[in-house]
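Exercise: predict the structure of this protein bound to S-adenosylmethionine.
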Amino acid sequence: MGRRLNPFVPSPLDVVVKALGEAGLERDRVLVDLGSGDGRVPIAAARHFGARAVGVEVNGRLVEHSLRISRSMGLRNVAFVEGDARYVDLNGVDFVYAYLTTEALEVLKPALLTAGRDAVVITHGYKIRGWTPREVLRIWSDTSYRYHTFYVYRVGDVKRSPEERSGQSGIRALRIDEFVPEPL
Ligand SMILES: C[S@@+](CC[C@H](N)C(=O)[O-])C[C@H]1O[C@@H](n2cnc3c(N)ncnc32)[C@H](O)[C@@H]1O
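Solution:
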């Protein structure tokens, strides 16, 4: 598996808003979308909830698109970073969203475990192998005309293997806290 773990497939906006609400996203909380595509999830978090949101995306053109849209909306509480989601430091992040396959999420596990114990990880459509979700949400979309499943995990619930306890690889991680916008 290369740097690009999965192609861009958008989450329908209506289910994203419902899933973030049910997972407990609130104003000023910090959300990161790992593989943010066209930016819709961080933009929805910022716009509908007043959260401080960051999108990490490997495709620079999608990052430019996301920035254009968020600027045209006048949003000050969202940021986009071109980077590799495998090498992020999620210290200070409250909510992590990922719409990636189970295989891709496996590769992201060390990065996910850099978030604090109270951080909530929301995955769309695919489970994280070996992790037990606190909640499974099935949400109907009026745009895709089907149910979407979301798995809601808490990082503190995860039982870590000895390798996972020893931390990330030697690659310098992208510190997400350096990109988080100021509270509104
Ligand atoms: C299935 S799409 C999800 C897009 C968005 N999160 C959503 O839910 O609408 C997955 C995205 O992850 C990006 N991606 C794949 N590998 C990545 C990596 N290593 N680091 C950052 N982004 C990555 C892809 O370019 C794509 O935009």
